[in-house]
Amino acid sequence: MAGSSGAAGARPPKSCGDSVSYADLLENALRPERWAKIKWAAKRIPFRGFDSIGTLKHSFLDQLGFYAIVSGDYVLYVGIAWKKGRTLRKRITEPHDSYEAINGWLGKNDADAEIMLGALVDCPQKRPSKQLREDAERVLILDNDVVFGADYEPREDMHVENVGSHRPFERVSAWSSKEDE
């Protein structure tokens, strides 16, 4: 009978597979054209002792990706390591102008900080473009009131979904060039 769904062994097309939920379909329908998903690792590194990173075992350190220096609910800095041969381990241990300012802020506020490590786990491109990676970094900076953040905007509207141990980042960070009406 035409249209019958009772045929033995009949399966829906792959695009309607068992693993696709209504919530997933809705989320993807509402997701903007430019987006990225970043998974933040549960294991964090103490900022003041990051000179030990050279020997530290951490699955994210030898990858390309994002890092954030956080203190409690404050995101102090967001960075990216994406050049060939320049892993998170190498990028974090390089001299950086912001590190002196961060240490000053920590001393003034009698606070400690940790380094979060993130990996880009999903985006609409097979090979994420430099612009997409940089814009994801910029969205994290702008939408999360980063204390020592750069003063520039993403080139296009973008949505970044933060998964894993993403606090103090919100679950979704977004930037739009359109003003609220």
Walk me through what this model shows.
The chain has four helices and seven strands, in the order αββββααβαββ. The chain has 181 residues and is an alpha+beta fold.
SSE blueprint and pairings:
Layout: H1 22-30, E1 35-40, E2 45-46, E3 65-71, E4 74-81, H2 88-93, H3 97-108, E5 114-122, H4 130-143, E6 158-164, E7 172-175
Parallel strand pairs: 1-6
Antiparallel strand pairs: 1-5, 2-5, 3-4, 3-5, 6-7
Task: Name a few traits of the molecule.
globular; 23% helix; 181 residues; seven-stranded mixed sheet; 4 helices; disordered N terminus; alpha+beta; 7 strands
Annotation, overall tally of beta strands: 7
Radius of gyration: 20 Å
Describe the largest sheet: 7 strands, mixed
Give the overall average pLDDT: 76
Question: Beta-sheet strand percentage?
Answer: 15-25%
Report the uncertain regions. Answer: 1-31
Overview in brief:
With 181 residues, the chain is an alpha+beta fold.
